[in-house]
Amino acid sequence: MYQSIFRPGLFDGQTIIVTGGGSGIGRAVAHELASLGAHVVIASRRTTKLERIQAEIAEAGGSASYYKCNLREEEQIVSLFEQVLAERGAVHGLVNNAGGQFLSPAEQLTSKGFDAVIETNLRGTFLMCREAFNQYMGQHGGVIVNMLIEMWRGFPGMAHSAAARAGIENLTKTLAVEWARAGVRLNAVAPGLIDSSGLAHYGEALRPLIEQTIQDIPAKRMGTESEVASAIVFLLSPAAAYISGESLKIDGASSLWRKTWQIEDHGRWERPYDGFTAR
Ligand code: ADE
Fold first, then answer.
1. Ligand 1 centroid to 44 CA: how many Å?
2. Total structural domains in the chain?
3. Is the CB of 77 under 6 A from ligand 1?
4. For the domain that residue 119 is a member of, what is the CATH number?
5. What phi, psi does 241 have (nearest 5°)?
6. pLDDT for the residue numbered 54
C-alpha cells in the first residue's frame, strides 16, 4: 500500500480522473489517491500500461479503472467524461498530468512538432477542463490540478513545451475566476528536476547533463515522483479549500538559484520522500 502522509479515507466516495496515470508522476498520484479511498480513473493514449497500473492499484487494495483517451482528439475527451459519468455518476477531481515534449533547439522545430506539443499539453488541458466543467463540475463543483514545468526563466531546448505550460498557467488563473461561482477550484504544479520514469524517455545521453543540473539545485538532489504527487493530493484536498489559481513549484528552489551564490554539495536536505517504499 502506498504510504501517503494524508489521512486514510480522505477521498472516500470520490472519483478522480488522472490523465497519464500509467507511469511516472501520474502513476504515483493514482496510487496515492487510491490509497486514500478515491476511485481513480486513469486515462492515456495507450492502454497497455494502464491495465498494469489498474492491477497494481487493485493489488494494493485500491479501486481504479482505465480509459483510452488521446488528448489530441476532442471527441475522445468528450466521450471520456460521458463514459466515466455513466459508470461512476460523478467526477470530483481531475489531474491533468498527461503531456509530452521532446528536446529540440527552437530553430529546428517544425510546425508539426510545435503543434503536437501545444495540442497535447495546452489544448488537451483546456478541453479536459472544459468537459469536466460542462459535464459535471459546473453543476456540482470540483477540483482540478494542471501540470506545468519549471519554466519561469524560459526553458532552453523545449520552447514548445514552455510556451504551452505558460499558457496552462494563465488558463488556470482565468478558469479559477470564471468558475469560482460553481465551486470549482483550479491550481497548477510546476515540477523541477524529478527522478521520474519519464526521464528515461530522453535517453542516457542526458545523464551527464542531469548530474550537472543537480549541482544547480539548492536542494542538491532530484525530486521524487511522490514529492510531486503529495503536492497534487494536497491541492485536491479540503486542506487547500481556499487556494485557487495558484502555481506551486516543486523544485528544491532551483528556479531561484543563480551562480553568484555557490552552494557546496551539502547532503543536508530532507531525505527523498517515496510513498512506494516503507519508511
Ligand atoms: N501523453 C502524451 N501524449 C498524449 C496524448 N496525446 N494523449 C494522452 N496522453 C498522452
1. 6
2. 1
3. no
4. 3.40.50.720
5. -60, -20
6. 97
Looking at the DSSP bridge assignments, the partners of residue 42 are 18, 66
Alpha-carbon dihedral sign for residues 48, 75, 235, 138: negative
3-state secondary structure of 204: helix
Can you tell me the mean pLDDT for 58-78? Answer: 98
Tell me if 146 sits within 8 A of 124, measured CB to CB. Answer: no
Q: Is the CB of 235 under 6 A from ligand 1?
A: no
Output the pLDDT for position 199.
80
29, 94 contact by CB (below 8 A): no
What's the domain range around 202? Answer: 15-248
Ligand 1 pocket test target in 17, 42, 44, 160 with most atoms within 8 Å of CB? 44
Model confidence, pTM = 0.97
**Helix 124-132 to helix 159-178 angle, to the nearest 10 degrees?**
20
Separation between Cα atoms, residue 257 and residue 201, nearest integer Å: 26
What interhelical angle do 24-35 and 225-236 show, nearest 10? Answer: 50
pLDDT of residue 278 exceeding 60: no
CA distance 271 to 221: 10
Cβ pair 193, 251 in contact under 8 A: yes
**Domain assignment of residue 276, yes or no:** no
Question: Which amino acid belongs to residue 157?
Answer: G
